[in-house]
């Protein structure tokens, strides 16, 4: 295995472009699927709401218990959509930056680093500002990403996919233990910070969504604007430099966009894993490897997957619910094992 900068370019067959018409049809299909899942999210939960009440609540009515339930589910659905889109897009960018098919904010320990930073700041430094949560989470995500990449780069072969995945998994497990060590002795925060150990979108409000939206908007913009550079990096660092791309700047800029998305989403929803792993691989099957198409599809696919996982978690355990982080783990863990067992796991 070779370092990320000298890996061979992908096979020619992998670079065959999908016709624009096919991509547009898949785009329409994904958008319609996301809209249907969002409707299901406001209709189904601990109690099922008739569609008449759903439409009435969406129109502003709040006259019955069913309509009140829909009104409460709307911000939860919105949070699931924006967090899922952020994680899906971050996964696509991370896989493009590292050319690592195993890259995922959860697997590489980025989300858990953000969680540990937030919990530590709250427990020992009295952090109470929701905006402060985001800044601290961004710092934790960046530090964790740098730590994992440094550890994964040690030894012969540099930062290979499997070494990064192993370093990230070990780091994530260690940080999860540290989160528990910080939270468990503090009964005053243990209940409210359970989501920083699992990940969930329960208890969402428009205020919480609004507080994180500016950070997510910056992350989305930086990541999507990096699409062209990621296409160049996919050809290998030497060829990208020959085409006039400033490789280090392009890689760092895209990584910053992904870290902002991870930190902001973790600050508001906790460490949700595997969305950024599953979604980019599925989207490549639909639209190919052109990041100008792939990254928007990753955002839409991540939103659909996380919202669907939240609906499933609410329905399968009525009247209780299963946190969305558990549902995504049940979906993503077998997929992760499948990717690891593939013979072409060396690079994208």
From TrEMBL:
For the keyword Coiled coil, the answer is: no
| UniProt GO molecular function | transmembrane transporter activity
Q: Could you tell me the membrane topology recorded for this protein?
A: Multi-pass membrane protein
Q: What is the lineage of its organism?
A: Bacteria, Bacillati, Actinomycetota, Actinomycetes, Kitasatosporales
Q: What Gene Ontology cellular-component terms does the record carry?
A: plasma membrane
* Cell compartment(s), UniProt: Cell membrane
The name on file for this protein is Iron ABC transporter permease
The cross-references to CDD domains, in alphabetical order and at most eight, read:
TM_ABC_iron-siderophores_like
List the residue ranges forming a coiled coil, or say none.
none
The record's keywords, sorted A to Z, are: Cell membrane, Membrane, Transmembrane, Transmembrane helix, Transport
